[in-house]
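Q: Hi! First time doing this. I have a protein sequence and I read that you can turn it into a structure. Is that right? Here it is:
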Amino acid sequence: MIENIAIIIILSKSSTMNLQDFEAQYREAMAETLNELQTAVLLLAQVQDKISNIGSSVQNLSERVEEFIANQKAE
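A: Yes, that's right. Below is the predicted 3D structure, encoded as structure tokens:
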């Protein structure tokens, strides 16, 4: 995550970490962060789809109940 990158930068300044180690750790942290971002985006898309489906179901149910009530009043 972003915190990992910040920690790597702090450690590189306060230790004897060489540039190659810094670069490797930075790239690994960035890859992990980007993977987490991609996962979050995919989860968000699933949530949006689920919300849309639930909204459609609620609308359909509401229409059926209103129809039932109207029919009961007509009888």
